[in-house]
Amino acid sequence: MSTFPPILRRRAFNAGLMGSAAVLAGAGVARAAPTRGGAIRLGMASQSTNDTFDSARYLYGNDYVRGTSTYSYLTRLDEKGEVQPEVAESFEPNKDATSWTFKLRRGITFHDGATLSTDDVIFSILRHQDPKTASSAKQLVANIKGVKADGPDRITVELNAPDVDFAVLIGIFQFALVKNGTTDFSKPIGTGAFTVKEFTPGVRTMGVRNPNFWKEGRPYIDSYEMFTILDASARANALLSGDADLITELRGASIEEVAKSATAQPFVTPAARYTAMQAAVDRAPSDNKEIMYGLSYLIDRKRLLDTVYRGYGAIANDFPIKSDSPYFDGALPQPSLDHDKAKYHIGKSGLGNSRLELTVSDAAIFSVEMGQLMQREASRIGLNIDLKREPNDAYWNVVAGKRPFFATNFHPRPTYNMLLNLAFKSNAVWNFSHYNNSDLDGLIDKARATLDVGQRKEIYGQIEKTIAGAGMIVLPCFMSYVDGVSNKVKGLTPVPVGNLGGFNFTDRIWLES
Amino acid sequence: MLAFALRRIGTALLVLVAVSVLVFAGCEELPGDVAEVSLGNFASPDNVRALRAEFGLDRPAPLRYADWLVGMVKGDFGRSITTRTPVAKLLRERAANTGILALATTVIAVPVAIGLGLLMALGSGGALDRIGSVTVLALSTTPEFLIGSVAVLFLAVKLRWLPAIAYIGAEAHFGAMVRALALPVATLAIVVSAQLARMTRAIIGNLLGRAFIEMAELKGVGRWRVVGVHALINAIGPLANVVALNMAYLVSGVVVVETIFAYPGLARLMVDAVQARDLPVVQACAMIFCAAYVVLILLADLLALLFDPRARPTRTATA
User: Are A265 and A2 in contact (CB under 8 A)?
Assistant: First the structure.
């Protein structure tokens, strides 16, 4: 990867092709055989005293890295976003995907020596349904009717409604495999690649190699130490000075700075992460579809991608599915900057001379810049946009969804269906637009229940049309993840659900000796 | 003297109680429900209710305030809402980090600044004074993040002499700690000593125009002795106050330096806690910061009293 000049690399990712990323990364892996030993230091962009080892409460990247390092999961996602076996050696649905059977690998032990049993696995799934647990996966487990053991190495999950992606869902960070009955996570015991040596919430996490890890010969590194570097340029400096080996979220000029250096390189993961402008459709004036139709023509998507995202991303079409997905329907026309069309829709909206208040915040990354671009184009057609900048603090609780027009930001989920469930279904917690459409709800459920790929694609086409036509969201571009990685770290490959290999990498990277 | 000290300590306690009311009221006014923000979007109404009950958030504010105040007097800051661990445990490492940073900076900055201020006052109007004054003025108006960033760029990224971040690892030994702290301490020491040096020069310069200095000079006391003894002893009061204010600032206000050097100190903890609505932690930090100001200024006042010749009628002001 590092042999490509930055410009070339950027162009390759600009094309938004997952394939090219996987090929580049693959070439890097093939070069050398992994070597054992060494310690890595991870500088993370987010900080929270909320840091936890209780996977039910996971919300941030730091938690995810802690999870994938300490615990094991039934499945994981690969570079193509496809599900791969982990603790579940194999898995299969029944013929209508209402029941899934997972065959567990034998002889996996916890850090304290106990053997992983079907009881532990069942507990790890069902504890998210427990009303006493404030689980961030609560909504996702609502579809589980029951889990039962099928002999010593097999479990079967019965679902209320069919789910073709259930094997993906069960591999997400919240479903860490823990010991049956665990309620205290201050001294975490998992079956993962590392045992916890030190954990100070908001300060540091340190893990050392688990010699009894079930993956033969792994992990390659002896230990990892994770801490927070909140400031973007301080993060880049720490990487360049060698004080951190991997950092998340390079920003702005730091990307070029790292690309030029002889010691580290940007690590790009094309993904369906996005920042969008949304309208609260349950109140005036934002229930007026024409306003959002107009705004959709008032953003220069190419310019946003090139200048604000520095080329690391892909142009989007006002719905959350990226063009490299098999579910992407190319039939919808791609909106671009068009003053005439914008003027037509704004005129039709009857907004007249009223000013439009658009709420932005650093809580939704780059929304301030996006708002400024829209504001400038709007002024050219005589529309006055007031940009209201709100602090990040409690933005998601007291601002998003509570103003007529506001910015939101979403990270990709392992499947598009999961995101649609969380953010577009009627009454979903993150449905900030308060969009209420039982037809769309039905389509989202149907897509999850349809085994035939062709039919599923058709349903997603309808979903895309519904969302783009609802006048609730202007989603101009997707943003790739850009992290920084020291040249001596090998074996890291992009997984399109998050930073640094989808936050799941400590058991597969090694240090060049 | 004793009566004065007792009176001051009494006032300081009153100030702390008043501050505690303000801190508590301020936390009550933060937007967003405490339980909702700290549990995240996925909490069911049951979860929120359970958390409110667990932390007694459903009780009336005056009761909660009273409990909090009584707990604090007994040395119990309560439990953090987000981590469920005692606040004191969360504070320990952070407070130690902040203490180390503030102390190291003070130990370096105060002698340097007072020495520099004296030199400038001595050579008032001369080349040393003018160059010194311009440099010190420039440095005291330069924001910390600029000094810090430039230092990191050259000393850490380009030359690789020192680490770019002041992160002290889990197994750091003394040498590594000194190296890690070098840049943040230097950054703060530059800013603080620039300000202190300016104040020292101004205070001493002011005193040098006074009648008793003229008297000493007329008596034939040497210039060094006039400045170093007659003027300095009178300057200790005002200087102690300036040093106290700067130290209190180092305890509470260095969030910028903590951020650019990724140093886990108290100021950063408080910002994080506000964002997570972890009110017991916010309140504990706020009280520590206020107490730092109150105690340091109290000490400075007492020190000023000790060194004030007029406050010691037993000793005649002869030299």
Answer: yes
Chain B contact for A392, CB < 8 A?
yes
Nearest Cα residue in chain A from B36: A397
Q: What is the dihedral of CA A206, A242, B109, B289, to 10 degrees?
A: -40
Supply φ then ψ for residue A95, to 5 degrees: -70, -20
| DSSP conformational letter for A46 | -
Q: Give the mutation candidate from A49, A200, A413, A418 for the B interface (greatest B CB count, under 10 A).
A: A49
Mean pLDDT by 10 residues, chain A (513 residues): 34 34 43 87 82 86 93 95 95 94 96 96 94 80 94 95 94 96 92 94 90 95 93 91 94 92 95 96 93 96 95 96 91 94 94 92 92 96 94 83 94 92 88 95 94 93 96 96 96 94 95 88
Q: Using alpha carbons, list the distances in angstroms from residue A432 to A272, A398, A405, A435.
A: 19, 11, 10, 8
Instruction: Render pLDDT for B188-222 as a digit per residue (tens, 0 to 9).
Output: 999 999 989 999 989 988 888 888 888 888 888 88
Residue with tokens 């790292």: A258
- All residues of chain A having their beta carbon less than 8 Å from the beta carbon of residue B156 are 237, 241, 243
The residue among A331, A292, A299, A298 whose CA lies nearest residue A315 is: A299
Give ipTM to 2 decimals: 0.77
Rounded CA separation B286/B68 (Å):
13
Complete DSSP assignment for A54-69: -GGG--SHHHHHHHHH
Asked whether the beta carbons of residue B40 and residue A57 sit closer than 8 angstroms, the reply is yes
| DSSP string for A75-135 | EEE-TTS-EEESSEEEEEE-TTSSEEEEEEPSS-B-TTSPBP-HHHHHHHHHGGG-TTS--
- Provide the terminal-to-terminal Cα distance of chain B, rounded to the nearest Å: 23
Taking the alpha carbons at both ends of chain A, their separation in whole angstroms is 18
Mutate to test the interface with B, among A51, A226, A233, A241 (most CBs of B within 10 A): A241
Using CA atoms, how far apart are residues B196 and B140, in angstroms rounded to an integer? 9
Rounded CA separation B174/B172 (Å) = 7
- Is A134 within 8 Å of B36 when comparing Cβ atoms? no
Q: Residue A148 pairs with which residues in a beta bridge?
A: A156
CB A176 within 8 A of CB A67: yes
For chain A, which domains are there? 271-479 (3.10.105.10)
Kindly determine whether residue A52 and residue B83, on different chains, have CB atoms separated by under 8 Å: yes
Which A positions 173-232 lie with beta carbon below 8 A of chain B? Answer: 186, 197-198, 200-204, 206, 225, 227-231
**Any B CB within 8 A of A154 CB:** no
- CA-to-CA distance for A42 and A15, rounded, in angstroms? 29
| Alpha-carbon distance values, B132 to A284, B115, B137, B238 (Å) | 63, 12, 8, 21
Q: Do A103 and B13 touch, CB atoms closer than 8 A?
A: no
Q: What is the pLDDT of residues B39-95, one digit of tens each?
A: 666 566 777 777 788 788 888 889 989 989 999 888 888 888 877 788 888 888 889
Which residue from A414, A417, A411, A375 is spatially nearest to A396, judged by alpha carbons? Answer: A411
Residue count (chain B): 319
Q: How far apart are CA B148 and CA B57, in angstroms?
A: 42
Nearest-Cα distance to chain B for A50, in Å, is: 6
Nearest 5°: the CA angle B259, A61, A17 is 115
Q: Which two tokens stand for residue A359?
A: 């709420």
Count how many residues are written for chain A.
513
